[in-house]
UniProtKB/TrEMBL annotation:
Gene3D superfamilies: Vaccinia Virus protein VP39. This is Methyltransferase small domain-containing protein. It holds the Pfam family PrmA. InterPro entries: Methyltransf_16, SAM-dependent_MTases_sf.
Length: 135
């Protein structure tokens, strides 16, 4: 599953490099830049995620049987925790496709991929199709 995330990323880098005048130099620049850069914002496990997950673990009745939406799921810690605590359904949203890929990888690793649904969401323009959720 993690291979699929890497393959997706490499395909996007390849497409950028293929459209450039110098494929090798562009690939090297993009990949070296990726290695040297600070990790993406979504890839950090934020303290707020830990606090929310701890709260859900000690009070699972808050989400048990409920429909849950997480705005800005990042790695999906809260979404996975809500699913593990018995949420009926969880919609994990983020504006970054790679974040959602990792959210689903984490959901699969924890046996709750059937409960968690990823949704690419631009917070400045939320879809009208996003149904109301309990939590």
């Amino acid at each position: 599953a993690q291979d699929a995330v890497i393959e997706d990323y490499m395909a996007s880098v390849h497409a950028i490099a293929a459209a450039s005048d110098d494929y090798d130099a562009t690939m090297e620049s993009l990949l070296c830049g990726e290695l040297a850069e600070r990790p993406d914002y979504w890839s950090w496990l934020w303290p707020s995620s830990l606090v929310i997950s701890q709260k859900l673990a000690t009070a699972p009745e808050f989400v048990r049987g409920q429909s849950v939406v997480e705005l800005g799921s990042g790695l999906g810690a809260c979404s996975v925790c809500a699913a593990l605590m018995g949420a009926a359904s969880v919609v994990a949203t983020d504006h970054e496709p790679r974040a959602l890929a990792y959210t689903m990888l984490n959901a699969k690793e924890n046996g709750v991929a059937d409960v968690v649904t990823p949704l690419l969401l631009d917070w400045s323009s939320p879809p009208s199709a996003l149904e109301p959720h309990d939590v």
